[in-house]
């Protein structure tokens, strides 16, 4: 479950910590591993050089050996390792075996860790009641040990679950305890706890207190030199500003952090940010500006099956918008979507979804759906008009196809004649207003030219971090200098060089024309075929397949 409480780091630590479980037999374990020491099997199971299937074989041998010796500590370590390697579908069975092992040991530390792991498995399956039950049992056992760090990890896990159940006051009490402890013990956990407190105070309407924790988080991020959480503190404050009716300020702050959230591949928080951008526009009565962001949130559900209770209102706004526009087709689409969203929320968030105010409840949605369907049925006598329109569209598409074909051919001929700009500007005479030492700029530009001449840009998944190493500078300077002296963002600059290269080799070397898009993408260092084809089309306005097809025709 992706969430705003940023528990992922904590969950990973628990799963990877050395003490938990799952069922596995010693059958089919290679005889050559039967007498290996625990240390050998542990090292092999955790080796990043081995394929996952091979590592699982070592982990199973480790489990078999520990079971035969009734070494509960080694057995729990082996179980936790295999849980990290195995398919997620098997985790519940592994967690049961882990718990059975811990019970055999009768050690509170192992029992607490086992219940904590089992709680995490239930949490990931969105079974929040079972997760909370296991976290409480974990706390009962861990609290009998002197392991303060694990005690507070359990408290944080309980707080996270209570947050999603809507028990915000109880969550705050637990987080305050964690805050005091993590301040001295773990910077990342400390920042995450501050962020969680800001979210909780927002939920109970104490926006002043929420702002306090958001500002504290930004301040401590600077002092601790840890920037990971900065976009999330800014996001939290942007949402807080929305609830304080400072809509313009909320808009500016939320739109500013979108690139950072996207860069982190944080899909859930990207969607949450879009929702509050839309809500801010809506509150400012700029509904036309809100609609594209509302649609982005809907696309997340259509493409990824993702939604959550606090963004359910997204569909109510879309339904209202298209209702006002008298667009029954779109209105029906979003009514049906909201019905599906409610099914998902009632399944995954059955506790919290009951507390969400619903402008459109199920009864009202179904009634509106039926009314719209009836009106649309009455319009069936307009079928002839619809067919006429469809025919017109088909003709228009055919005309468009012909025009595109002509345009594509023209683009191809321009590429063959070299009329399309395939080079990156290399002028060093541009004004250096970058607030960077001129000597550094000169050095970086020199290395940049070497980077281009030696075609280092063809390396696999070349990005800002890697290019900064080649330029012998930091990512900030690299990004600024490339933007200034090459006129492009770093990724666009790298992609342009790659596409320039592949165009030249396709024109001059026949063998590359038989390559698939996937093979071409790999040849010039793209991480995926999709990224390659998108970059090629952006650069040339035609697809690589079309370019190769035309090359073959020309050279027949």
UniProtKB/TrEMBL annotation:
The family database entries (InterPro entries) matched by this protein are listed as:
Homeodomain-like_sf, HTH_AraC, TPR-like_helical_dom_sf
Q: Where is the chain membrane-spanning?
A: 382-399
**Domain (HTH araC/xylS-type): residue spans on this chain:** 458-550
Q: What UniProt keywords apply to this chain's record, in alphabetical order? A: Membrane, Signal, Transcription, Transcription regulation, Transmembrane, Transmembrane helix
Secreted in keyword set: no
Please tell me whether the keyword Cell division is annotated for this protein: no
User: Which superkingdom does the taxonomy of this entry point to?
Assistant: Bacteria
Signal sequence region: 1-24
Please identify the protein, giving its name as recorded.
AraC family transcriptional regulator
